[in-house]
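Quick review question:
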């Protein structure tokens, strides 16, 4: 009997591609960077702290890809310009951008200061816009397409108490995704949003261990938070040619959480 051939024709293969992952040193970003590297891409890891970037870079080096560690603050246009230039010099011009950097300030609205609001919205929404715009302008000048994955959240579609700035920023990021997809399809840049449900990372702190967190988990139809490796498939779909006709899409990975009854 002849062995069956793998039938995906290398659809998810990223050899020869270059990816930028903001917030690539920790949590979801680290998992995204690992997924892209394993699929063959070279990866620029961006974030404010050098140490987590270098730790992740050491891990990725074992995947045989080229890795760049770029100190970059997504709220600062000059830092973004310098970061993209440094990534270009070290790896070449990027084809894939994972706009993953994000923060949360969980607080009731009456306790949330204007400075807290600005920090969250400047990072999660304005920061994602500034990095996407810099990436698209660079790609446009080179007449080269690309793909952008905005890491939003199911909290951009549904509500939870005491995360007003975070919810607003992620709802804004979802609609920004549609706006940029509409505008940049003509320059061959796809823009999609990935909406994770709950995954245990630093951004959640010890929330999942609290009574409130436990209630949230029991409300997930699959009765558990996600595992980081369960974002591999969704990310690769949007990052690779497998998703070549997808733009302006929202891809949800949440164990059915959005379906839970009100
Ligand atoms: N965990 C979840 O359940 C979940 C669910 C839905 C969506 N998300 C989204 O997934 C993304 C990653 O979060 P995570 O869960 O992996 O948490 P995390 O480990 O805290 O990751 C956040 C990353 O963003 C970086 N970052 C924050 N502010 C930045 C800035 N101004 N400039 C550059 N980088 C910055 C951080 O690095 P530095 O501090 O070194 O800059 C860090 O690496 C976020 O957008 C989050 O909203 C997470």
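Suggested answer, residue by residue:
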């Amino acid at each position: 009997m002849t062995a069956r051939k793998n039938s995906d024709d290398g659809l998810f293969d990223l050899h020869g591609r270059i990816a930028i992952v903001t917030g690539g040193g920790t949590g979801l970003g680290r998992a995204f960077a690992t997924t892209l590297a394993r699929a063959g891409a070279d990866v620029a890891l961006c974030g404010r702290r050098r140490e987590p970037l270098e730790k992740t870079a050491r891990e990725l080096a074992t995947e045989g890809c080229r890795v760049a560690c770029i100190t970059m603050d997504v709220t600062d246009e000059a830092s973004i310009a310098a970061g993209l230039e440094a990534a270009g010099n070290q790896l070449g011009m990027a084809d894939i951008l994972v706009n993953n950097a994000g923060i949360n300030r969980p607080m009731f609205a009456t306790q949330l200061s204007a400075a807290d609001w600005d920090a969250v919205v400047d990072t999660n929404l304005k920061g994602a816009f500034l990095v996407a715009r810099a990436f698209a302008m660079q790609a446009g000048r080179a007449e080269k397409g690309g793909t952008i994955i905005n890491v939003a959240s199911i909290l951009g579609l549904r509500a939870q108490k005491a995360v007003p700035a975070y919810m607003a920023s992620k709802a804004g990021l979802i609609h920004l995704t549609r706006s940029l997809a509409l505008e940049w399809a003509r320059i061959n840049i796809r823009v999609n949003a990935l909406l994770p449900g709950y995954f245990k990372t630093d951004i959640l702190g010890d929330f999942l261990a609290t009574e409130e967190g436990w209630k949230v988990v029991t409300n997930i139809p699959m009765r558990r938070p996600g595992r980081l490796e369960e974002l591999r498939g969704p990310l690769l779909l949007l990052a690779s040619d497998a998703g070549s006709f997808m733009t302006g899409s929202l891809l949800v990975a949440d164990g059915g959480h959005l379906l839970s009854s009100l």
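Why it works: The chain has a mean pLDDT of 96. The longest strand covers residues 189-196.
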